Amino acid sequence: MSKSNSTAMTEFLFEGFSSFGWQYRLTFFVVFLTLYLLTFTGNIIIVTIICLDHHLHTPMYFFLSMLSISENCYTVAIIPRMLSDLLSLHQPISIQGCATQLFFYLTFGINNCFLLMIMGYDRYMAICNPLRYSVIMSKEACIQLVSGSLVIGLGIATVQLTSTWNLSMKRENHTAVSEFVFQGFPSFCEHKLTLFVVFLILYLLTLAGNVIIVTIISIDRHLHTPMYFFLSMLSMSETMYTLVIVPRMLSSLIGLSQPISLAGCATQMFFFITLAINNCFLLTAMGYDRYVAICNPLRYTVIMNKKVCAQLVWGTCSIGLLVAIIQISSVFKLPFCDRKVAHYFCDIRPVMKLSCADTNLHDIINIIVSSLVIVVPMGLVFISYILIISTILKIASAEGRKKAFATCASHLTVVIVHYGCASIAYLKPNSENTRDQDQLISVTYTIFTPLLNPVVYTLRNKEVKDALHRAFGKKPLA
């Protein structure tokens, strides 16, 4: 650790067009203001005409209206400030103001690039594949393309902004922490070897179980269905999730723990958040799959086609990545005064407790994000199961009801344990539990919950057990 006594910057100054005389700046002001008003007015006219004229309600003009709106937002982020600087002496801009301007400039600048690419794709489909144009460029596809371009812009802007501010912002008179040390399980010093053996066995069982599930689903054509596709994605995500945390935890239990750099801690936290949120929303996608299978069986293969399944998986991963970027940006722009993390991995709350700064705002952001990524998917899953159960109860035969419940039992078991642990860990007040209790909850969702997935789906799922028997050359269970 080293001491930092650098001057804390609170504002910036734009040099602008300072090399030009007053008369030139006045000319620039008139020219730029005229161009800006023409641009702004022209884009508003385009958007208004496209909205009012039903003849223009086509993909091409939809993309054009989105581009016009994006271009207006892009110019609003830059031009008004530039015009005011041309008429006055340099006015300072706060660090927050500069960050906001940079964020919107990057977001809409990148969004414009991808919108132009989408418009090119639209013209390609219209000319090269006209008979299928209306099917391929449906309203849903157009909205997804526009949303995707905006998400890419937001994601890159967040990464760039975080990178720039971490590099350039100095804080005055605080201890610069360059690495963290995990305290691990200090209350269980006498039992560390026992914990190591238990956790290692559970970890190896988790890895082996998830690898077996993915392998069986890949090689057995009877399991090439949406439900097992989502299960294989969940197994891969759970495997990567444990790889991020457990090996380092095991090494610390036998005294091989090494300090972790800020970059290493941020990386671990990034993958932990991404994969944890990905798991939450994958369980939601699996719940939706069971809802369609039971409540709308005749259209199941049409609704849950390969494209939709791939989009759902891609969407879950995108949400995880976006939330992780936001959380990492929030946590690692803080100054840190202590290096001892009261945990066995870089989780958000233990790391924020090491900050010198007031973290109330970050705590609020954390609880809002946690609520959204836990409560929303959990709510969607339980709504799905309310509809599923109401449909199952209408089935006339007892055998039919039993079979329908059996297809959902494994998923529902995993859902209850997964969301239960996540809710206890992240939706409770900060001071509700002791550190030992928090660590016990963390062990549950980092070690036991990932093991639950392969155990439940191999011991309670007849189709998977039959596939395992076929793989080993045995007769499937009757």
From TrEMBL:
Residues 42-208, 209-457 form the G-protein coupled receptors family 1 profile domain. The keyword Transmembrane helix applies. The chain crosses the membrane at residues 26-52, 61-82, 102-121, 142-161, 193-216, 228-250, 270-288, 308-328, 364-393, 405-427, 439-459. Its main location: membrane. One of its GO terms (molecular function) is G protein-coupled receptor activity. InterPro entries: GPCR_Rhodpsn (IPR000276), GPCR_Rhodpsn_7TM (IPR017452), Olfact_rcpt (IPR000725). GO terms for cellular component: plasma membrane. Pfam families: 7tm_4 (PF13853). PROSITE patterns: G_PROTEIN_RECEP_F1_2 (PS50262). It is found in: Cell membrane. The keyword Transmembrane helix applies. It is a multi-pass membrane protein. Keywords: Cell membrane, G-protein coupled receptor, Membrane, Olfaction, Receptor, Sensory transduction, Transducer, Transmembrane, Transmembrane helix. Belongs to the G-protein coupled receptor 1 family. Putative odorant or sperm cell receptor. PANTHER family: OLFACTORY RECEPTOR. This is Olfactory receptor 10J1-like. It comes from Pteropus vampyrus.
